[in-house]
Amino acid sequence: MEDHCAGIALVLKHGRLGETYNIGGGAEMANIDLIGLLCDELDRRFAADKSLAASFPRCPAASGGSTRKLITFVKDRPGHDRRYAICADKLAHELKFHAETVLADGLRRTVDWYLNNERWWRAIQTGAYRDWMKKQYGAALTGSNA
């Protein structure tokens, strides 16, 4: 997150007006490989912190399995999700931006954030935020017809 914010600040301060700059970490890989790294990080966490099994008993890692067994492929997007990539060369060349966070560290910190903010993401799972958005912004801005 810090890298992304630093990239935005750099563009705001030194970017050319009207130009578009992509901010990237330079760690391109296939989506399935990225998900594998995330699963491996979760598996390490469960192995190192036995209290996670009590909080997330349905997770395969809670009983010594691998979270990789949760990976599923959907039929309606064959091949579509092979990878997502951007070219951040303009930002690197024009404004000399390079991300400082390596992917493994970013994944570790992301997992930390979600483990430390369970209340926030559990609330999203209920869908209650949609009611709040509708109340605050109305159906037209939330894309809801109800």
Give a nutshell description of this structure.
With 146 residues, the protein is mainly alpha-helical. It has a domain at 30-84.
Layout: helices, strands, pairs:
Blueprint: H1 2-14, H2 31-48, H3 51-55, H4 89-95, H5 103-116, H6 118-126, H7 128-142
Summarize the structure in words.
It is a single chain. The protein is 55% helix and 0% strand. α2 crosses α5 (103-116). The longest helix has 18 residues, at 31-48. The chain has helices spanning 2-14, 31-48, 51-55, 89-95, 103-116, 118-126, 128-142. The relative contact order is 0.15. The chain has a domain at 30-84. The model has no long low-confidence stretch (mean pLDDT 89). The protein is mainly α and 146 residues long.
* Count of DSSP strands: 0
Q: Shape from CA axes?
A: globular
Order of helices and strands: HHHHHHH
Q: How much of the residues is beta strand, in percent?
A: under 5%
Q: How large is the count of helical segments?
A: 7
Mean pLDDT: 89
Structural class: mainly alpha
> In angstroms, what separates the terminal alpha carbons?
35 Å
Major beta-sheet overview: none
Rg on CA atoms, Å: 19 Å
Unreliable runs = none
Q: Helix amount, in percent?
A: 55-70%
